[in-house]
From TrEMBL:
The lineage of its organism: Bacteria, Bacillati, Bacillota, Bacilli, Bacillales. It is found in: Periplasm. Residues 1-20 form the signal peptide. Keywords: Signal. Belongs to the bacterial solute-binding protein SsuA/TauA family. SUPFAM superfamilies: Periplasmic binding protein-like II. This is ABC transporter substrate-binding protein.
Length: 340
């Protein structure tokens, strides 16, 4: 049987860690109206402009208006984020949907459920060392390509797009997958690889600084997928349904706000989360994502998008089981939020 990705760390926690209920609590804190404020520990897989609506919900006070005090933590990587969720270090995780599928195949007593979608396309771009205004995908053949972690959504989408363009990632190029996510940009700059797969704003920063040139969007080439989704353990969705609903309501409000406002306005709001990036660069990155429809307009994770995710995983040889939509996705909270 094929070895499942991120299984080692997950099994350690599933087997040896006491996953005791450690849900959100009020801590007797009250808002200006005297209502109790519930604390939520939220873990995001990385810090990215790709998650703009999340930061908008925090900065515009949408969570606060819903009676939530959200403590945002960046957990740096799908395996670490899922471990944090399973061990109750965080209550809610923002991470790629594929991680919930990997956990599901371990048959945990407390399943991880996707309940609110944040992004609906891949968020990476193909960046090259040299400018190429006449770029076509077939030019990658025979090149050295610095990809993302094997088994993660960026890499699986990357391979899916390459195969769509008649490129076998195993034989038609020198594909490297041994660099940690956080170190990929630096490895590209210091190394000899001709191409790399990068998120924003790094891709635009590289282009501005002359370190690379954006040639294509993997998001545009791969279609709609539930790329990053808010998820929680099934027990929390049952025990703290009202809290999850408040959280989803705030996210939907932020999604609508992002859709209604221009990139520069959004950039000014989320700037505190990207202190080393100027507002104009943030705006350029946000605009790129808005133009290709990366930000989900609502939190509803649709079955067609889920099936596309499974096709991408299957093409990469990473789909470990049937991954039933009905078992791993809860659309009740999204639907209620959209009715309000």
């Amino acid at each position: 049987m094929k070895k499942l990705r991120i299984t080692g760390i997950l099994l350690l926690f599933l087997t040896f860690t006491m996953l005791a209920a450690c849900g959100p609590g009020s801590d007797d804190k009250k808002d200006s109206d005297g209502q109790k404020v519930e604390k939520i520990k939220l873990g995001e897989v990385t810090r990215s402009v790709f998650y703009a609506p999340e930061y908008v919900a925090l900065e515009k006070g949408f969570f606060k208006d819903a009676g939530l005090d959200v403590d945002l933590q960046t957990t740096w990587g799908g395996d670490k984020t899922m471990t944090a969720l399973l061990s109750a270090s965080v209550d809610i995780a923002l991470v790629g949907s594929e991680t919930s599928i990997y956990v599901h195949e371990q048959k945990p007593k407390d399943k991880v459920i996707n309940f609110a979608q944040l992004t609906r396309t891949d968020g990476t771009f193909l960046v090259s060392k040299e400018a190429d205004p006449d770029f076509t995908w077939d030019k990658l053949k025979g090149s050295s390509f610095l990809g993302q972690r094997k088994g993660g959504m960026p890499q699986m989408v990357g391979e899916f797009v390459l195969k769509k363009n008649d490129i076998d990632p195993k034989t038609d190029l020198n594909l490297k997958q041994n660099i940690d996510f956080a170190n990929i940009p630096g490895a590209f700059v210091s190394g000899d690889d001709q191409y790399v797969q990068l998120f924003e704003p790094t891709a635009s920063i590289f282009e501005k600084e002359g370190k690379g040139h954006i040639l294509a969007s993997f998001g545009e080439a791969s279609g709609e997928v539930p790329y990053t989704v808010f998820m929680a353990k099934e027990s929390m969705l049952k025990k703290d349904a009202a809290t999850i609903q408040k959280f989803t309501d705030a996210i939907y409000k932020a999604q609508q706000w992002v859709d209604a406002n221009d990139a520069k306005t959004i950039a000014k709001v989320i700037a505190p989360y990207f202190e080393d990036t100027d507002v104009d660069m943030l705006a350029a990155s946000i605009n790129r994502y808005k133009e290709q429809g990366s930000y989900a307009l609502d939190p509803l994770l649709k079955k067609d998008a889920w099936n596309n995710l499974k096709d991408i995983m299957d093409a990469a040889g990473e789909l470990p089981g049937k991954a039933p939509y009905e078992e791993l996705v809860n659309t009740d909270f999204a639907k209620k939020a959209m009715k309000k």
